[in-house]
UniProtKB/TrEMBL annotation:
PROSITE patterns: TPR (PS50005). This is Peptidase MA-like domain-containing protein. InterPro entries: Peptidase_MA-like_dom, TPR-like_helical_dom_sf, TPR_rpt. Residues 1-25 form the signal peptide. Keywords: Coiled coil, Signal, TPR repeat. Residues 420-558 form the Peptidase MA-like domain. TPR repeats lie at residues 233-266. Residues 169-196 form a coiled coil. The keyword Zinc-finger does not apply.
Length: 759
């Protein structure tokens, strides 16, 4: 229901955005088809003379043609009137300029897909219409589409004097940290704005962004911009964007604060300041600036949804755990704040605490870094809320995201049961906290993601190392990027699926380095990045190879590891299709043979469509239950985590009396689907028998949190665990809870009598 409600709210918001007035961001019009009378008004804006500009636009609103009146209304923030004029102007016209300007209105009101559609309509009238071609590229670039970069490259060759195209491409190159290319484009644009009498403000701001990425002072560009326009807040806000894409959220907050100080009406800066205050867990400051942004522009989806998220945050339950040193339990090495939805909290909290303690203890040692402030962990049972939390983050299909000391992710309830391993996702994100903070966020995205994937594979709760067929195909087809260009696959992917391919490539790179030169080499690279080294320099210092030599050696490693499979990948996939056909006809003999061969060829394939589950089913059908169990145990040991298969394996092992082997499988199931009451009960009883009261309490706490039908037995389990911890007072309290739930529950009555007799 919540998902449907959000969709309805968003639809209503989009309708309202074009039926009311809204404040706009600071907009520079580079298109030369704009009327000269409007350009005169624009020049007041560019110099910070808002009163003169507004008077000029109002005059134009009374005297211009329909297109000029529409543009004037848009400049005045009267979106309803502007939309009305654009509609009227386009009614009986095939002028591409009208559709293009109308599309720009949609871009300004945060409706990129609608803008894209209108730009395409303009190009139907005139396929060579330059403002529409550039506008379409801009719309695509806002969605981090790799196609935008290629389009803009073509446009800057075809129209080398077009300032807008040069600036848009320069911004993309800066995001990819191709600083030399970006500087060249900006210098060309700067020469053109002087010749065309256009403002240099955005160019100054992007030059400041380049200085920021190079670790230089922004002051020279700031001074030039403020001399041109003392109220130009984007001279701080635009460079702040480059702090965000390099994970430096605290520094971004500082720049956004300066932006709103000199331009208090810059809605986008208030919005981004609020969002980034939230990312660093400054909730009260976040609410203030988001409310200010809403007052200025009440139709910005990011602002509205983040304010709604803040309302939901107020309802979440917050707890914490102090993490002791594994060497000295009296020494606290970190604190973890845990924020969970109330309906999830009791079931998940014991597991989150358990994993957080393990992660902090391990990563503190592995990366030689102690947390300097509390880590914040948030799990959202509504994926829409999590989606808002990740706003403005490039990437697709995200399960979790980390903003320095704060990490957020979907809870198991946010997605279909068993669709992802939430424990592995949480481990991945907590690794980010250490690697980001150990370098003050000065590491490339590929290395940060690579280390987290590497830790998933080597130290996390899931041993899954499967590469998807899409990733294997990319390796075979030579689609992997050079290591010093690997960030491009995350920030500006050039083909479908490249983000996921880049994740796996980054993980493989880190895994290869650790295998060949040791984990210490990864720590050395981390320290190199913290000192400002680039990828080539960090590699050279850590392992003695430059980027090109490393790429060649890495390719050899991949061929040794996967070469046989890659050479016969088409045959492998054909055999997979054969297996699918054998299942359609219940041909279990053929299915067994095919599944065994597929396992031999690629044993790491344990995800959806894996041959292990087919082989187990085939053996079951042929009456060989024990052999089926062994196959599924092999699958589980490699990281198999399909919840239905795990549950069946647990039942089979328990029926076979193999309880000790069932326990790790039950633990695995809870990291995928933690809401199975029988599994929690079985584990709790097992840990009581093994005199492990802490683990037993974790399970019985989860049962109490899920409000199971048999609450009395869960409270009784907590009482028995308390007794094993020599805590009779707590045991007595838990027994009383059990009897409050079920007054005639005999085991609880007997334990209460025993406790009373012992007083």
């Amino acid at each position: 229901m919540r998902r449907a409600e959000h969709g309805s709210c968003l639809l209503l918001m989009l309708v309202l955005a074009l039926s009311s007035g809204a404040a706009q961001a600071f907009t520079i019009h580079y298109d030369l088809d704009r009327s000269e009378s409007l350009r005169e008004c624009d020049r007041f804006v560019y110099r910070g003379k808002d009163d003169e500009a507004n008077e000029c636009y109002r005059q134009q609103l009374q005297s211009g043609d329909l297109l000029e009146r529409a543009d004037a209304a848009a400049a005045l923030g009267d979106i309803r009137q502007a939309n009305k004029f654009y509609r009227e102007a386009s009614a009986n016209s095939t002028d591409p300029a009208i559709k293009t300007h109308w599309a720009s209105l949609y871009l300004q009101t945060h409706q990129t897909s609608d803008a894209e559609a209108l730009f395409r309509e303009a190009l139907l009238y005139d396929r060579s219409w330059l403002p529409a071609r550039i506008g379409l590229a801009e719309a695509l670039s806002e969605g981090f589409e790799g196609q935008a970069r290629e389009t803009l490259r073509e446009l800057t060759v075809e129209y080398p004097d077009n300032v807008h195209a040069l600036i848009l491409l320069a911004r993309i190159e800066l995001e990819l940290q191709n600083l030399t290319d970006a500087r060249g484009l900006l210098n060309r644009a700067l020469a053109e704005v002087k010749a065309q009498n256009l403002p240099p403000l955005e160019i100054y701001a992007l030059h400041a962004g380049a200085d920021l990425l190079e670790g230089k002072s922004l002051k020279p560009w700031i001074e030039r911009a403020l001399q041109y326009n003392p109220q130009y807040g984007d001279i701080y806000a635009i460079p702040a964007h480059f702090y965000i894409i390099t994970y430096r959220y605290r520094e971004a907050v500082d720049l956004y604060q300066k932006a709103v100080a000199i331009d208090p009406d810059l809605a986008t800066a208030h919005r981004d300041l609020g969002i980034n205050q939230l990312r660093v867990n400054n909730i009260f400051a976040a609410r203030y600036h988001l409310q200010k942004a809403y007052d200025l522009d009440p139709f910005d989806a990011q602002t509205i949804n983040t304010l709604r998220l803040l309302d939901d945050l107020d309802k979440m339950r917050v707890s914490y755990v102090d993490v002791p040193s594994p060497d000295d339990p009296e020494t606290i090495i970190g604190r973890v704040l845990i924020r969970l939805d109330s309906e999830d909290a009791d079931a998940l909290e014991p597991y989150v605490i358990d994993l957080a303690i393990q992660a902090v203890q391990l990563f503190t040692k592995r990366y030689d870094f102690a947390l300097l402030r509390p880590m914040v962990v948030e799990l959202y049972h509504d994926h829409d809320d999590f989606g808002v939390r990740t706003v403005s983050t490039p990437g697709i299909g995200l399960l979790g995201v980390t903003f320095g000391y704060l990490t957020a992710m979907d809870s198991p309830k946010a997605r279909a049961a068993g669709s992802f391993h939430w424990g592995s996702t949480l481990w991945h994100e907590m690794a980010h906290v250490f690697t980001l903070e150990a370098t003050n966020h000065k590491l490339p995205r590929w290395f940060s993601e690579g280390l987290s994937v590497y830790e998933e594979w080597n130290s996390g709760p899931l041993s899954d190392r499967e590469l998807s067929i899409e990733v294997l195909t990319a390796i075979r087809d030579k689609q992997l990027l050079p290591v010093d260009a690997l960030d491009q696959g995350f920030v500006r992917p050039s083909y479908n699926g490249q983000v996921q391919v880049s994740y796996m490539q980054a993980g493989l790179v880190c895994d290869f380095i650790a295998q060949r030169w040791g984990h210490a080499s990864l720590v050395s690279m981390l320290k190199g990045f913290a000192q400002g080294q680039d990828t080539g320099e960090a590699l050279s210092e850590a392992i003695g190879l430059d980027s090109k030599a490393f790429d060649a050696l890495f390719e050899e490693y991949l061929m040794v590891r996967f070469g046989d499979l890659l050479d016969t990948l088409d045959d492998y996939l054909a055999e997979v299709r054969q297996l699918e056909r054998s299942l359609q006809f219940d041909d279990w003999v053929s299915a067994e043979a095919l599944a065994r061969d597929l396992i031999r060829r690629y044993p790491e394939r344990i995800g959806a469509g894996n041959p292990y589950q087919v082989l187990a089913a085939a053996l079951q059908e042929q009456g060989n239950v024990d052999a089926a169990i062994e196959v599924l145990l092999d699958w589980h040991a490699l990281g198999g985590h399909d919840p239905d298969a795990l549950l069946q394996l647990i039942v089979d092992l328990r029926e076979a009396g193999r309880l000790d082997e069932a326990v790790p499988v039950m633990e695995s199931l809870n990291w995928v689907m933690p809401y199975g009451t029988d599994v929690h009960r079985w584990l709790g009883e097992h840990y009581l028998q093994q005199q492990e009261p802490e683990l037993a309490l974790r399970e019985f706490n989860a049962l109490v949190g899920m409000q199971v039908d048999d609450l009395a037995s869960a409270y009784l389990g907590k009482a028995q665990a308390a007794l094993q911890q020599d805590d009779p007072m707590t045991a007595r309290r838990q027994v009383l809870y059990a009897l409050e739930t079920a007054p005639f529950y005999r085991p609880a009555q007997q334990l209460l009598l025993s406790l009373s007799a012992g007083e």
